[in-house]
Design brief:
By secondary structure, this protein is an alpha/beta fold. It is built from 11 helices and 7 strands. A hairpin with a 2-residue loop joins strand 4 and strand 5.
């Protein structure tokens, strides 16, 4: 059988070296090339048309999602697996919608990367457990808010959290609502205090559990 050809696009030299070494040592894999930014990544895809693309999302000169979309549109034989530090829902959903069929977080390490590549090429969808749980929660029936939970956040606070859960930045939300960024941040801080959390991710998670934020 011909080896599985792999292109790696990763801007962090340490991760790129680790992924490259793992692929190079596997007898059934062949490293077609490794790049550190978006233009180089596009060039490698055009030149080698690999079986598998391993791609980070945060790249110089653009997003890895552009590479995912290019592979999906022009290289139907190429399977795409994201390897990134971004585990939030907007990045995950944008990657999957662009055409990625695997999504691994970098904290999972490179030790089992060869097995994940083989699984991807065999038709599987390797996904880090925390990402899989996030996707399952997204598909689960949303709870109906109780009268007590509905009273917890004001309509404005719920609206800001809902838009934030859809991936909009606070600046974008301010423009959409026709208010200042300061006003949006006031709603955010009030939401954190009422939900007893300390981050946007925690706030969205808690608000979803209470049925206050819906997709």
């Amino acid at each position: 059988m011909d080896p599985i050809t792999v292109v790696i696009v990763e801007d962090d030299e340490r991760f790129r070296a680790a992924f490259t070494a793992v692929v190079a040592e596997a007898p059934d894999l062949r490293l077609a090339g490794a790049a550190g930014d978006l233009p180089q990544g596009l060039q490698l895809l055009r030149e080698h048309r690999p079986d598998v693309l391993l791609v980070d999302l945060g790249l110089p000169s653009g997003s890895g999602i552009e590479l995912i979309r290019f592979a999906h549109d022009h290289l139907p034989q190429t399977d795409v697996m994201v390897i990134t530090v971004f585990g939030d829902e907007p990045h995950v959903m944008a990657s999957l919608e662009a055409g990625a069929t695997g999504y691994l977080l970098k904290d999972s390490g490179a030790a089992d990367l060869t097995e994940q590549i083989r699984a991807l090429r065999a038709g599987g969808s390797p996904i880090s457990p925390v990402i899989a749980r996030q996707l399952l929660l997204r598909l689960a029936p949303e709870p109906a808010p109780t009268a007590q939970s509905e009273a917890l956040l004001s309509p404005q606070e719920r609206q800001v959290l809902t838009l934030s859960a859809k991936g909009f930045s606070f600046e974008e939300i301010a423009r959409m609502l026709g208010v200042s960024r300061h006003t949006v941040m006031t709603y955010v801080k009030r939401s954190y205090r009422k939900l007893q959390v300390h981050s946007k991710t925690e706030a969205i998670y808690e608000a979803r559990k209470l049925g206050l934020v819906r997709d």
